Amino acid sequence: MQGDPGHGVRRARLARHTQVWTSAGGEPTGSSGWRAPDDTSYAVAELRDDRVELLLDEDHARMLVWVARDDLARALTRTITPRPGLELGVGAPVIVRGQDGDVAGIEVLADDLRVITTAAADAIDDVFEAARPPATAARDHAYDQPSLDERVAIRARPDDGAVILAATVAWVPVVEHGRADGWVEVERAGVYVRVRGWVRADQVQTGTIGGTGGGHGYGSSHRVPLPVGDEACLYDAPDGHPIGLEIGDYTRLSYPADADGWHWVMVDSPWGLLDVAVHDLAVGDGAADAAPVWARCGD
């Protein structure tokens, strides 16, 4: 679980958060319901008919969890170019709106753009393989950066009747390539959607700074802070199986387990707080106040 877990492996993203298992044979944890699925993609460790094991990299921890395969989103498994000026990359999230033989009508909502087009049905699956984990699309905040507001259609030609390649669903930065008769040729190179087309000149803005922000925290009564060391092993239960490790020294909310040297700690996730176990090897060495010596997975 160290190194680059996304390099050259299968990946998937979630369409919904229903429930999650920290062990294949254990009881599931239901979703807290506050977090909607996003563009995050996860490395796939194991694929079964009804379950998939994903590598979760969040809240200073890296660990394996199981989800229902029905919870996976559909995505493109190869890069496609439906029209000149439009390219959709591997992993682009897909909603299938219909299918006629081997061709599917699809909607892609990514990189602050909406694309309605078609794709070969065999280019769509719930698991895809990318050379690397997708990066986050850059959002240039320079004052002189050309940009488009939401609900702007990017067309194939400088004509109000031309085919719409993509439409913005939020503020997006663009690169300007030229002008012609009241139109501007722009390009938006996102992670999944790369489009080059035309918008009306009065739709191009400058001097606009876009961006969003947010965050969350969590607390839990009757839990005490516990400093857990870097690469401490995370287990599905006391005396159970290792499922992950800590990334860096981090203080977690905890409560005691029923086995000597074991603690339950809480790790945040898209499903809410998950309880996993850590093991203090110093317990039983005769020093009641000895500093914890965490069992490590990094070794």
Per-chain topology:
Elements: E1 10-13, E2 19-21, E3 29-30, E4 41-47, E5 51-58, E6 61-68, E7 74-76, E8 80-83, E9 86-88, E10 93-100, E11 103-110, E12 113-120, E13 124-125, E14 128-129, E15 147-148, E16 153-155, E17 164-168, E18 172-173, E19 175-180, E20 183-189, E21 193-200, E22 204-205, E23 224-228, E24 233-235, E25 242-246, E26 250-256, E27 262-269, E28 272-279
Alpha carbon gyration radius: 23 Å
Helix content: under 10%
**β-sheet strand percentage:** over 45%
Number of strands: 28
H and E order: EEEEEEEEEEEEEEEEEEEEEEEEEEEE
**Amino-to-carboxy terminus distance:** 11 Å
Mean pLDDT: 87
Q: How many helix segments? A: 0
Q: Please identify the structural class as seen in this structure.
A: mainly beta
Major sheet = 9 strands, antiparallel
Low-confidence stretches: 137-142
Overall geometry comes to elongated
Based on the model shown, name its key terms.
nine-stranded antiparallel beta sheet, 0% helix, 47% strand, seven-stranded antiparallel beta sheet, 299 residues, mainly beta
In brief:
Helices cover 0% and strands 47% of the residues.
Describe this structure in words.
With 299 residues, this protein is mainly β. It is 0% helix and 47% strand. The protein contains no helices and 28 strands. The protein has strands at 10-13, 19-21, 29-30, 41-47, 51-58, 61-68, 74-76, 80-83, 86-88, 93-100, 103-110, 113-120, 124-125, 128-129, 147-148, 153-155, 164-168, 172-173, 175-180, 183-189, 193-200, 204-205, 224-228, 233-235, 242-246, 250-256, 262-269, 272-279. The strands form five sheets. Strands 1, 2, 3, 4, 5, 6, 14, 24 and 25 form a nine-stranded antiparallel sheet that branches. Strands 13-7-10-11-12-17-16 form a seven-stranded antiparallel sheet, with no helix packed on it. β5 and β6 form a beta hairpin. The protein starts with 9 loop residues before the first strand and ends in a 20-residue tail after the last strand. Mean pLDDT is 87; it is low at 137-142.
